[in-house]
Amino acid sequence: MSIVSYVKENPLPKNIIGYFFLTIGILGFFKNIVLASIFIAIGLGFITKEGSEINLDNKTYRNVKSIFGIKFGKWIPCPKFEYVSVFKTTEKQTVRVITASTSFTNDTILLNLFYNGNKHITFYKTTDKEEAFRIADKMKFILEIDVLDATNQEKKWL
């Protein structure tokens, strides 16, 4: 089975906060089940990762939520893809805890599959440009579509 999978990594502070709440919830489970359950739910919310998968064998995709490496999501048939775009952007993540918040920014490269004109599915994110183009070439071959290099000001078809 050939599946292209991407799960977005959480920032370290978000994971630390999530595991902190999870630990408090587990330790307090026998003292106050309701309060412990709330802490566990908050902790799981912080450490849950999001992403997407495309099954290249049967041409289906799904948006996933991942907890401890277990992925959840419903498989949907892929639309007729027109092209894959390799796009460079800046990604910003904000972590909020009650009254405090902090933001993290980093350069990232998105691989989007476009269909029906301007609709798209983001199916992969990376910071490695070479890796992005290797995966885009694989998608080009399997789906028989073109690749658009949008990592620079001047876009070009590959």
Q: Describe it for me?
A:
The protein is an alpha+beta fold. It has a domain at 79-157. It is built from three helices and ten strands, in the order E-H-H-E-E-E-E-E-E-E-H-E-E. The protein has helices at 12-27, 33-47, 129-143; strands spanning 3-7, 49-55, 60-67, 70-72, 76-77, 83-97, 100-115, 119-126, 146-150, 156-157. Strands 1, 2, 3, 4 and 5 form a five-stranded antiparallel beta sheet that branches. Strands 8-7-6-9-10 form a five-stranded mixed beta sheet, covered by helices on one side. The longest helix has 16 residues, at 12-27. The protein is elongated and about 60 Å long. The protein starts with a strand and ends with a strand. The relative contact order is 0.15.
- Count the DSSP helices: 3
Helical content stands at 25-40%
Helix-strand topology string:
EHHEEEEEEEHEE
Number of strands: 10
In short:
By secondary structure, this protein is α+β, with helices and mostly antiparallel strands.
Summarize this structure as a short list of keywords or feature phrases.
alpha+beta, 3 helices, single chain, 10 strands, 5-stranded antiparallel β-sheet
Write the layout of secondary structure elements.
Elements: E1 3-7, H1 12-27, H2 33-47, E2 49-55, E3 60-67, E4 70-72, E5 76-77, E6 83-97, E7 100-115, E8 119-126, H3 129-143, E9 146-150, E10 156-157
Parallel strand pairs: 6-9
Antiparallel strand pairs: 1-2, 2-3, 3-4, 3-5, 6-7, 7-8, 9-10
Helix pairs in contact: 1-2
